[in-house]
Amino acid sequence: MLPFINRELSWLDFNSRVLAEAQKQENLPLDRLKFLAITASNLDEFFMVRAAYLQMKSKKDTETDDAGLTAPEQLAQVLERARFFQMEQAKCLKEILVELEDAGIHVCRMADLDEEQLSFAAKLFADEVLPVITPLAVDPSRPFPFLANQSLNIGVRMCNSEGEDVYAVVQVPSILSRFIYLPNKESNYLLPLEELLSYHLPQICDLHEIMAYGFFRITRSADFDVDDDTDNLLEEMKRTLKKRKRSKPIRLELSEGFDEKLYAFLREMLNIGKRFVFQLPVWLDLSAFSKIASLKGYNKLRQKPLTPAPAADFLNCTDIFSAIRERDRMLQHPYESFDPVVDFISAAASDPQVLAIKQTLYRVSGRSQVVAALEQAAENGKQVTVLVELKARFDEENNIQWANRMERAGCHVIYGVSGLKTHCKITLVVRREEDGIRRYIHLSTGNYNDVTARLYTDIGMFTCRPSFGADASALFNHLTGFSRPPEYHKLVVAPENMKQFFLDKIEQEIENACNQLPCGINIKVNSLLDGQIVRKLYEASCAGVPIWLLVRGICSLLPGQAGISENIRVRSVLGQFLEHSRVFTFENAGSPLIYMGSADLMPRNLDRRIEVIFPVEEPLLVQNLQEMLRFMWRDNVGAWELSSDGIYRRVEQTGKTAIDSQQQLARLAWKMSTGKGVDK
Fold it and tell me: What is the torsional sign of CA 222, 228, 233, 235?
């Protein structure tokens, strides 16, 4: 049996690597707190999606995965690992808060406040908090209230005049800031809102004697399938979102020392098993601490934020269409500015020669410049077609709002493809020029999102090569109409032919190895999970093909196994930015082929999504991408290597110069654009 690592346990390993950045003493304290908050947000999503899926699957499925584990076995290991992980988070938070106190940032309790602060807090409670809260009693006439997903609450046990236990719930209002800034001239004192509420519980629940209270938080399942056969996908998506809000709790988090009777009451009301209950010795919802991580005035406590460099490929370009006609152009975010992407769509919106704009949107920012440009294009009489993916998880409501807004502006909005998620990132601009119609294309590994473009590493390419233009038109016609999947010249599209494309490319490297020709595979993805791809990589390793895999998150492949994967190395790079780009390089007998795109090597991407990867043919761009991969393989600051025992270990710096690939790429971007280095 070939070795495989379980998907869920591999993901938990990834989140542990993120937590290790929070635990790393060399990192600045607010950066450590940022990483800690990210791990909490990640774990919330993991419970909502993956743990909920395993719980559902455990009731009816006894099959094993590639790693040989049944769903009940996976769930048991996941819950055990998650329990340990949350305790590690708690220890880490305590360490960071001590460090922050030394720097003048105090996350405090009511007992820590002086007279002035107590007076301030009391007035704030009376003026701004009390009018907002609604204590909810539970008795025969008032059933247990519905509590929103991820909401923070206070459970209260009281004793009535007959000596009976009665219960109430006070929801900590999410509309108010989680942390209250208290007056102090020398330091920042931050009081969690739940502390203020619990201190004033006698005012909130004054009819009965309070016997006990405790903080709790619930996480609900978000693992829902949308009925793609519906006549109205938009309305079906709205119904699904309502259903999700009232879904079954998958995790109950309790504060330390939680009252036993109150605990039993909550378990009964929420109908949740003991193994899904987590009691924690620190504040609940650590993701909220991201607000403190971004606290103004404390830049010395965090890594200097990166200012994206002007895009070197567009320096001194006065006309973006002329620049793309000269040669293919590339952007690397966040090292280079996202502005050329917005400029491309804005120029198309206002250019009288542009006839049509077609674009896919998966996740966009709250104030999207891209959407604004598309709206302007429609108002200017362009034919604007936008495929908005309504099923982009946790962005569904946002995408519904954007879709409605663009329709009002006159855009033709398509709500995805039945049975598939549209995850590809592509824009097509059709322009009438002196020598006829020309098509300009932007293809990317990341979303059209100007916010995440400053946080995620992604790569985009502009081209107007006719073969790319023909493929782009064919793709959009297939997505928006009833045309059959076309035969593409340059683009590789899932689910039609992408998996087979990768299998064929790996097979070619195997043949090259057998014929003693130059061979090798160098891949950078977020996740590697597809069983067929993993087995083919094992086969290539056995044939002597050297394989380098940069896999940020889930990796089911186990390297370094004698006679199976001894020619495979796997690394994961974590740093200031989230590694998000996907790059695929094949040595091809000495004439390297390099592709980029939106797809990870997972069944969902290859079998159940519209994905696009594309070749990079401009020699200069090929050289830049190969240099980027070399930088990442030299990293010894944020790099982890997966060993043959299935454990990730930090890449050693011993006796070596520290190499942070992200910082080096940032410096290189500035050097290429100004020649003056990153400090400028």
Answer: negative
Query: Hey, which of 234-238, 397-401, 474-478 has the most confident mean pLDDT?
Result: 474-478
Q: Which two tokens stand for residue 196?
A: 């203020």
Report if pTM > 0.90: yes
CB 251 within 8 A of CB 278: yes
d(CA 184, CA 188): 7
21: Cβ contacts below 8 Å, ≥ 6 apart: 27, 31, 32, 35, 574, 638
Q: Are 158 and 205 in contact (CB under 8 A)?
A: yes
Which own/partner contact pairs does 672-677 have at CB distance under 8 Å and 24+ positions apart? 672/309, 672/312, 673/309, 673/310, 673/311, 673/312, 673/315, 673/336, 674/309, 674/310
End-to-end CA distance of the chain: 55
Contact 660, 637 (CB under 8 A): yes
In order of their start, the domains of the chain are 1-103 (1.20.58.310), 107-272 (3.30.1840.10), 320-487 (3.30.870.10), 494-674 (3.30.870.10)
Model pLDDT for residues 515-542, shown as the tens digit of each residue: 999 999 999 999 999 999 999 999 999 9
186 by Cβ neighbours in 10 Å (0-12 / 13-18 / 19+) ranks as: exposed
Question: Which amino acids are annotated catalytic?
Answer: 423
Residue 10 has phi, psi (to 5 degrees) of: -65, -40
Closest among 415, 430, 351, 417 to 383, alpha carbons compared:
430
Task: Say which residues have a Cβ less than 8 Å from residue 201's Cβ, sequence separation at least 6.
Answer: 154, 156, 170, 210, 213
Q: Tell me the DSSP string of 283-330.
A: -S-GGGGHHHHT-TT-GGGSPPPP-PBPPGGGTT-S-HHHHHHHS-EE
Which amino acid makes up residue 655? G
pLDDT in tens, 291-345: 999 998 899 999 999 999 999 999 989 999 999 999 999 999 999 999 999 999 9
**DSSP code at position 654:** T
